[in-house]
Design a protein that fits this description.
The chain is mainly α. It contains 12 helices and 2 strands; from the N terminus they run αααααααββααααα.
């Protein structure tokens, strides 16, 4: 069975595929997109799971080695062996079917002590990690630039506008510090999300955990998280992480929009500032 396509009927209770329109809603069949956006994270989760299961004796070392070897091959080829396969039930199951076709049905033992619920909850966090870190780092660099410029212009006289008209004397440093103050609050809001983002949900299962002797703290550490879930129900049922990030980003967007409008005012009729040619439109 190692190199054969797994028939649909052998993978569960469903004996036929969904109606095409329903399938398009439920499943994402774009495996080329999945090779970049999802499958690398599935593979990372499976790699950590295989190491943990072998460590606690739930799978043998030979199976763990086979799984890790196949994951190495897939990641080296950027999952192209999966990208060209049909995906009537979505990218995740196409990925799992491929592993079973290469290793055998014993690959399903990877799901010991976990469920689709804690896998997906952990996947979301892994996908968010890099853009979150990049956004926080870029915002911190912007704050450093603003504070550095402000220190160099403590005595630079600059108008303060009201109703888009020069109204009061101020300093350039005063304006820059105002920008920095708003953005510092936005950075605090982003960083407040980090403790939630830094918890692994593997081990929560479908919400009730598992009686198997798994080690969630090991999979958490292997995936770069600080700790496993504090509460299994909260881990798989809550969706506030994404909402908190969206709220923080929306407020940051409002702050940046206000700063951009102020810069346009300075560049406009007042001629208080200029933009370099590479930023001109």
């Amino acid at each position: 069975m190692a190199n054969e396509e797994i028939p649909l009927q052998s993978t569960g209770r469903i004996k036929s595929t969904l109606h095409p329109e329903a399938s398009a809603i439920v499943f994402d069949s774009d495996l080329q997109r999945a090779t970049k956006d999802e499958l690398p994270f599935y593979a990372d989760i499976d790699r950590a799971q295989a190491v943990m299961l072998e460590r606690v004796g739930l799978i043998n070392r030979a199976l763990a080695r086979k799984i890790l070897t196949e994951l190495d091959k897939l990641q080296a080829e950027i999952f192209q062996s999966i990208a060209c396969r049909p995906a009537p039930r979505g990218s995740c199951l196409a990925y799992e079917d491929y592993l079973r076709s290469r290793i055998g049905n014993e690959t399903s033992n990877l799901h010991l002590g976990r469920s689709r619920n804690d896998i997906n909850a952990t996947l979301v966090k892994l996908k968010l990690r890099a853009p979150y870190q990049e956004l926080a780092a870029e915002l911190l660099k912007l704050l450093q630039v603003l504070c550095g410029l402000a220190r160099g212009h403590l005595e630079t006289v600059f108008p303060l506008h009201t109703h888009r008209q020069p109204a009061l004397p101020s300093t350039f440093a005063h304006h820059l510090a105002a920008f920095a103050s708003a953005l510092a609050r936005d950075l605090d809001a982003l960083l407040a999300v980090h403790p939630i983002l830094n918890l692994s949900y593997l081990g929560a299962g479908a919400g009730g955990g598992t009686t198997l002797p798994i080690r969630p703290e090991l999979t958490a550490r292997l995936l770069g998280f600080s700790s496993p879930p504090l509460n299994s129900i909260d881990g798989v049922a809550s969706r506030d992480l994404v909402l908190r990030l969206l709220a923080a980003c929306a407020i940051l967007g409002s702050s940046l929009s206000r700063i951009a409008e102020t810069l346009l005012l300075w560049v406009g009729d007042d001629g208080l500032a200029t933009l370099p040619d590479e930023l001109g439109v």
